[in-house]
Specification:
15% of the residues lie in helices and 21% in strands. The chain contains 3 helices and 7 strands, in the order H-E-H-E-H-E-E-E-E-E. A 3-stranded parallel beta sheet has the order 1-2-7, covered by helices on one side. A two-stranded antiparallel sheet has the order 3-6. Strands 4-5 form a two-stranded antiparallel ribbon.
């Protein structure tokens, strides 16, 4: 099924949204999506603390290609770019959301075909993460 470009826009699908590069306005919302091109410079330590507080008080934070400086918030300690990753492997027992993945083929998601795989960034998970924190794509 092909979705026309005009129907894929959030506003035309009835999804309310607000786009801003002003952190003080974004932090007021329950869902904060951080996209690399919208964050032209590193976030200040105080802004990271505000994002963490927003999440802890029930808000949602989603980051596309999360910035290394957000590692503590998202539960990772290192980012390593590579063109040698060809699949994502999930461990069903680590995250309650993955409990329904009970077949081997569901636990492995291909990223592309060798050798045309695009660069990906691997993250080292911080010990003690509960799998319920903000998500990074």
């Amino acid at each position: 099924m092909k979705v026309s470009r005009s129907r894929s826009r959030p506003a035309e699908m009835g999804i309310p949204f607000f786009v801003t590069r002003d952190f003080s306005r974004a932090i007021l919302h329950r869902l904060i999506i951080i996209y690399p091109s919208a964050v032209p410079q590193p976030l200040a330590a105080g802004q990271i603390e505000e994002l963490t507080a927003a999440h802890r008080s029930g808000g949602s934070v989603l980051a596309v290609k999360s910035l290394p400086q957000l590692g503590a918030l998202f539960g990772f300690s290192a980012v390593v770019p590579s063109r040698q990753r060809y699949q994502v492997n999930f461990s069903a027992g680590l995250d309650p959301a993955l409990r329904y993945l009970n077949r081997p083929e569901e636990l492995q998601v291909p990223l592309g075909d060798f050798p045309s795989t695009a660069k990906s960034s691997g993250r080292t998970v911080t010990a003690g993460g509960d799998g319920r924190g903000p998500r990074s794509l």
